[in-house]
Design a protein that fits this description.
This protein has 342 residues and is an alpha/beta fold. The protein has 2 domains: 2-156 and 326-337, Rossmann fold; 162-323, Rossmann fold. The chain is built from 15 helices and 12 strands. The protein has helices at 15-25, 36-41, 49-56, 60-77, 92-101, 119-123, 139-145, 159-162, 185-197, 210-213, 230-238, 257-265, 293-305, 307-324, 327-337; strands at residues 2-7, 30-35, 81-85, 106-110, 130-133, 150-152, 175-180, 203-206, 223-224, 240-245, 269-272, 288-290. The strands form 2 sheets. The chain has a 6-stranded parallel β-sheet, with helices on both faces. The protein starts with a strand and ends in a 5-residue tail after the last helix. 36% of the residues are buried.
């Protein structure tokens, strides 16, 4: 079977996890890849200004050129399944062209908050056979938009990127509490609350835009903006006693990628409330949830005073993710939903 993945494939792109998984775990699949933003880049003029301008005001001519290239690529390779990720600039005219030639099932995986939907995702609805959504609750909005068939497919853990946690019990602890992720007002509010109540702890914040957007200057000394990749990313989670996961307000009630990455890497997770996962990952069994500033402080105090219980929660979360929540499991779910056997 020939499967075509169309996506941005920059370092943080979700599609990379599916690419790695298929290449390693599904040898019967002939994987085709179209890195649409990389291919589009060769049509952009007046670089680097053109890149910056196109990011905020897409130039129709450049988008059409890469879509023509994509259309020819699909016609020549004749894939058996097409999977498009997120806001990839695949125009509805390209979907229409493909459907006019082939009876190829087309899948859209939506990995983002609804506030980041673009007009193109509304236009392509009639041509998408199945939409997979990272959040169950937002599927109803896609039905309203005209998507015929939607399925819940949350994020997962990528062992080919972050490792499979062999050193879960041997990693040296560097921090008492840490957070990794870009700045958001709700994230700053939580981290400010933590340093207010636990000023003597060793705390670390890693991620972009913190120093630019920071309001609480007390946090500045805890911040490192240099990104982490792969095994270093996983090691960071394991080297922290308590990993704070502050899910964006606009991602509620779904889980973000970090929800699975912390546990899959072998870290202990203290997450803001996540209703879509709370029946699967149980509070104080696999993960710990906080629902308010008061409960945040209470849960941190509990975990610090009960290290054996904290370690058991960490191990339970790790085992559950490794057993049932990797991208191999998600790929199997996707193929089963499409009635594809490989």
């Amino acid at each position: 079977m020939k499967l075509l993945i169309i996506s941005d494939l920059s370092p943080y792109a979700l599609a990379n996890s599916y690419v790695r998984t298929i290449q390693n775990d599904f040898p019967a699949i002939n994987l085709l890849i179209f890195d649409i933003l990389h291919e589009q880049n060769k049509y952009i003029k007046l670089k680097p200004f053109g890149n910056y301008f196109h990011r905020f005001v897409p130039v129709e001519a450049w988008v059409r050129k890469v879509n023509r290239e994509l259309s020819v690529f699909i016609r020549k390779n004749k894939p058996d399944l097409i999977v498009v990720f997120g806001n990839s600039p695949v125009q509805y005219s390209t979907y229409a062209f493909v459907k006019s030639l082939f009876d190829i099932p087309v899948v859209l995986y939506w990995p983002d908050t609804l506030t980041n939907l673009e007009q193109n995702q509304y236009n392509i609805a009639p041509f998408v056979d199945v939409l997979f959504s990272y959040s169950d609750s937002i599927r109803k909005s896609f039905h309203i938009m005209g998507y015929k068939n939607t399925c819940f497919l949350p994020f997962a853990y990528d062992p080919y990127y972050m490792g499979n946690g062999e050193s879960i019990s041997s990693t040296m602890v560097k921090y008492d509490i840490s957070f990794i992720g870009g700045h958001r007002p709700e994230r700053e509010e939580i981290m400010s609350e933590i340093i207010h109540h636990f000023p003597s702890l060793n705390i670390k914040i890693r991620g972009p835009y913190w120093k630019r957007d920071l309001k609480d200057k007390r946090l500045r000394k805890f911040i490192t903006e240099k990104p982490l990749f792969g095994k270093q990313y996983a090691d960071f989670f394991r080297s922290t006693k308590i990993n704070i996961n502050i899910i964006d307000d606009t991602n509620y009630p779904g889980a973000n990628m970090r929800f699975f990455e912390i546990m899959g890497a072998g870290g202990l997770q203290l997450s803001s409330t996540c209703p879509e996962m709370e029946n699967i990952f149980v509070d104080k069994q696999d993960v710990v949830y906080f629902h308010s500033k008061e409960s945040l402080v209470e849960k941190i105090d509990f975990l610090l005073k009960n290290p054996d219980k904290a370690n058991l929660i960490r191990e339970n979360g790790f085992n559950k993710v490794q057993k049932s929540h990797t991208y191999k499991h998600r790929t199997e779910t996707m193929l089963n939903q499409l009635n594809i056997t490989v």
